[in-house]
Prior knowledge:
By secondary structure, the chain is of the alpha+beta class.
Amino acid sequence: MSRQSTVTARAPRPEASAAAGAFQVVSDTLTVETDARFEILDITDRVRDVVRRLGVTDGLLSLQSLHTTCSVLVNEAQSALHADIRRFLDLVVDRDAEWLHNDPEHSDCDRCNADAHLRALLLGPSVTLQVSGGDIVLGQWQRVLLVELDGPRARTVRLQLMGVA
């Protein structure tokens, strides 16, 4: 297991600024293929590419998972921390507990994935990031992460960018 974190390469901290131009709202989607039931994927570079392509230089970016068992969050991309996140979720939400969602007498879901829904409830489906100078604003160790809780599957993340070009 790696002891190394991914550093967000960025220019010096953006100074206070006022941007002028036409206000725009643009959106796009990312499709992410996952390989395991539980997986944490760093999608920062893909998000950056979309922001640059959409052409808004200053504003806000909203990212939202379009799934009830997949989350988007900002944290560190370091394998030991990702193992700790998994351990934390395993301790808080027991996969083998007697969840009503997994019981055919109470639910029509045949995936037995109540634990994935409950874990997604803790992590949340979305994040909002600032955009400055045409790039997402992240701290030194911050990365945009997709957390797969019921894979493997193809997952969709919607990006909506609001600001000025």
